[in-house]
Sequence to fold (699 residues):
Amino acid sequence: EEEGIPCSLDHDIRLIEIPLIREILYILELARNDMDKSSVINRIKCSYFRICGDEEGDLAEYMLRGLDFESLSELDDDRLQEYSHQEMMVDIIEMIQEENRGLPKRSHIEVYIDYIAGLIEQYGIDGSIAEIYNRTQDYDLLHRDFVALDRFRELLDKLRRFGNIFGSEIPLGEFIDLLREYLEGKCIAKREGSDDGINILTPVMTRGHRFKILFFIGLSQGNYPNLRDDNFFFREKNHGELRAIGMDIKGYYERLDKESLIFATVIAACSHKLYLSYSENATGDEKDIPSIFLDELLRVIGGTEMEDKLNIIDVDMDYLFKDDPEQLTVEKEIPRYLLRRYGDGICETEYMKMHYEEGAEVFHRVNDNIISEVSRQGDGFNRYNGNIGDAHINTDIADIHANKLYSISYLEAYGRCPYAFLMNNILGVQEMERTLLDFTPLDRGIILHEVLKQYYHRYMERIRAHILGDMEFEIDRTYDYIEDRLKYHMDQRGFADGSRLWQMRIENNAHMTLDFIKADLDRLAKLEKKAIPIELEVDFGREEAFEIEVGDLRIPFVGKIDRIDRYVDEDKYILIDYKSSAYGDRKIGDMRAGISLQLPIYMLSQGDKNIVACMHGIISDGKFIVRLGDVEERHLMTRRNSGALTRDELEELLGDTRNIVGAYMHSIFQGDFSIDPRECSKHCIYRNICRYEPVMEVE
Fold:
């Protein structure tokens, strides 16, 4: 196609890629997915099976994307009343629901086929195709759609026959998967081939022909012969059953024998020169291997070494770059050739003058990329490595932060990666909406924190008595209370569907919470210096301002400490932050690097209180780990603990935290959002934008 050489091959397109056919799948998927948001939007945007005009469809999509719902059935008049086009939206919802009622979740194959055939008839698809042609005057589009519809109807007839054979009901989801599988494998000709060009044939089509020169390509194991059982019905395990009902279905070895014969026929069709080709593309640590047929052919050819049997030609990506200008055949090869020569230190001045216009766009793009990369790697601070130098923009950034109350996580995000901070916190660039988990780790963390707060409040006196040895607190007998609280909070957040999965979540989290509390009280009871919980979910910076002062900057913070314990006999305090899992367990190195500010700022927020330790309580495994504390508190931590610091070292860390906070704020106001992360997550949604690659330094 690129070289303009005609060939006999039709330009095919798979049925599933054709919009008309995709829209049928959208309607079926709508029922399968319980009319969720993305499925409803896909249905509204259908062009062949129209339920509204283009403008109404755009308005409906805008409204739906702004609404929080799991299923269309949740949207009643009250949820839609704030929109001026409420009546239009109600009509669309009613049409979708009415259409959906006729599609059962489980039935016979012929019932599903009748439903689809009814849709095609109801919406007058033949007329819709003709109407689109009248509007576009695109004959190729007309031909594509009519042929696709004809092939689709043939496919439905074929599936109907299979349904009559297999009789039993199947779930809608299985029918959709079956239909999709067939559509993936069926193609129609988008453009007819030319009989005057190169003959491109399948192995079967070589039968009865003779060729002086023949190229046999794709001889990689797995691609040829292709004996995989991908068909929904005709799998190897069904072979005996299908034979038993009179269907002539070939088994694996029968198909292998047939393909062997066809391969031999292809080889025999060549009279002078035969090219055998297979790909050796590397994927990870593996490479494609030659077909078993190619191995067998080489075995019967005389000679001991491969070079004795064949002339071997290795073709790599260099064939795309021509060394001789006489070999250039298409326009886009000209800039490739000139750039390749320039990279080798040869400037083809004459060709550059003659053909600059053909490659101007490419040359400009390459030049811009080179300037960008060189500037990024340089020592200077410029617009290519994250500096926003515009005074007006920096003023806007300062205005955004005027009177702002800062969370610790806000500045930690800047510390981890200034560029990701810019994308997320300043520009609000979000990834495309995805289907969310119905019970996320964030949901679980919020619920577990709330349950623990209520538990320690309720049983505070018994917990104190247990720690001091005055009585034994039978913690196991409080399991029902924990389970009740979990049910209540999951119900409040919309997760109480009464399913077995819901009950399993309740039970798993209840047992985990109980084990965490038992481990906590066991630990407290064994401490040499007894400490008891005295405050839960302690707010700071809300009723009474808490600010970190650095030079002229005063940065107000708000936050909440999960728990504060106090020594029984001394005025000393321990701060505890709950973590759902060990994933959020940050160490002293993270604090010094400025990517974990939480525990140091917690200490600063408590003013003159004598804070001797800060701990993480890991709910998932019941561990309590001191991450920051006074080295003299040896009953809490050993000297080997990296977070065990002297008083002077603690004060130094707190001073460094103040300076880090000030430096972050100064950099934000100066527009410094450089692509130089202190921590780069492989899950970051901005990786494809920033193109940051970590560099390993070797001394």
Observations:
- The first helix runs from residue 19 to 32.
- The CA atoms of residues 394 and 680 lie 25 Å apart.
